[in-house]
């Protein structure tokens, strides 16, 4: 759990806090920072590297290079997703349908979540959005 929180804190500093190291951001700060996804071509690859680290250090608990449904369930549990809500996300990320999530499938969905404005399965990366 400490590693997860360390990564979340690094991500906050990298993606949101900016050089001023803000501890709070406004809605417009969020919009401005998020727009880097579309303004800076290398930013998506930077995001991919972050999610490789999330995969290796957090999600892939046994380090075998793939995520089982249980591992992904535990990963989403870190952000409060109930286990019963995980199957649609797992199936969306498992694009080759082999019953496992590879590192590439994981990173593709993660980057797609932040970088793709089309309605794709990547929208389920962090689980379902609840109203
Ligand atoms: Ca694994
Ligand atoms: Ca797969």
TrEMBL record:
Alphabetized GO MF terms: calcium ion binding
Name of one Pfam family that matches: EF-hand_5
Signal sequence bounds: none
Occurrences of domain EF-hand (ranges): 57-82, 90-116
Alphabetical keyword list: Calcium
Identification of the protein by name: Sarcoplasmic calcium-binding protein-like
Source organism of this protein record: Lingula anatina
């Amino acid at each position: 759990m400490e590693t997860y929180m360390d990564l979340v804190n690094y991500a906050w500093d990298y993606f949101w806090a900016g050089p001023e190291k803000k501890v709070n951001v406004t809605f417009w700060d969020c919009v401005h920072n998020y727009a880097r996804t579309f303004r800076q071509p290398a930013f998506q690859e930077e995001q991919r590297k972050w999610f490789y680290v999330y995969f290796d250090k957090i999600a892939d608990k046994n380090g075998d290079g793939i995520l089982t449904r249980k591992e992904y369930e535990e990963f989403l549990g870190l952000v409060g997703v109930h286990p019963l809500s995980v199957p649609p996300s797992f199936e969306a990320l498992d694009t080759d349908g082999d019953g496992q999530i590879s590192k590439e499938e994981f990173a593709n969905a993660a980057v797609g979540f932040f970088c793709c404005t089309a309605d794709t399965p990547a929208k389920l990366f962090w689980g379902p959005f609840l109203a």
